[in-house]
Write a structure and sequence with these properties.
The chain is 53% helix and 14% strand. By secondary structure, it is an alpha/beta fold. The protein has a single domain, classed as Rossmann fold (3-Layer(aba) Sandwich), CATH 3.40.50. Helix 5 links the parallel strand 4 and strand 5.
Length: 191
């Protein structure tokens, strides 16, 4: 009996530890900023791809609240977070998940705020399963869907910034500067 209790305790501790690590890494970048975009991922393994969204947003001065929240494995954590997010200043959700990829859809079902879905290539199907799961939302529960992986996360970050730029001149200037810099980096000739 004592062994079983110790095992349960160890599993709970291990399950909590990765989520805290991810949150700490990004919290230091967003320190002092109003957290306006929630970047959710179904697993700590998704951080490598989802970091692209956070990097773009924080480069434009937009604070991000980064969380590991699974629609399947942590449903109570997910619903509690989404229920309180708007009152804490969150204006947009960026959700990345692989496999069945229900995180974005379940988030959209719980909030009227914009939800951007990033399919991740974490399965044997290289993200096609996640892409189809996110893009096939029923009418009435919209989720903006992006390409698979890091590029999708980066574009979701840029799209979240564009949403905020409609009412925030500082974010608009940062987005305009980002695009000008991107354009200037394209050479006229390949040689």
């Amino acid at each position: 009996m004592a062994v079983r209790k110790a095992a349960k305790k160890a599993v709970k501790k291990a399950a909590k530890k990765p989520a805290k690590k991810v949150a700490r890494k990004t919290a230091s970048k967003s320190r002092g900023k109003q957290l306006r975009v929630a970047v959710l991922m179904g697993s700590k393994n998704d951080w490598e791809a989802m970091k692209s969204a956070v990097d773009v947003l924080e480069g434009m001065g937009v604070g991000c609240d980064v969380r590991v929240i699974s629609a399947h494995r942590t449903p109570d954590r997910h619903s509690a977070y989404v229920a309180k997010a708007e009152s804490k200043g969150i204006e947009v959700f960026v959700c990345g998940a692989g496999f069945a990829a229900h995180l974005a859809g379940v988030t959209a079902a719980l909030t009227p705020l914009p939800v951007l879905g990033v399919p991740l290539d974490s399965s044997a199907l290289n993200g096609m399963d996640a892409l189809l799961a996110i893009v096939q939302m029923p009418g009435g529960i919209p989720v903006a869907t992006f390409t698979i992986g890091k590029s999708g996360a980066k574009n979701a970050g840029l799209f979240a910034a564009a949403i905020l730029a409609g009412s925030d001149a500082k974010v608009r200037r940062a987005l305009d500067a980002y695009r000008k810099k991107q354009t200037a980096a394209v050479p006229e000739r390949p040689f």
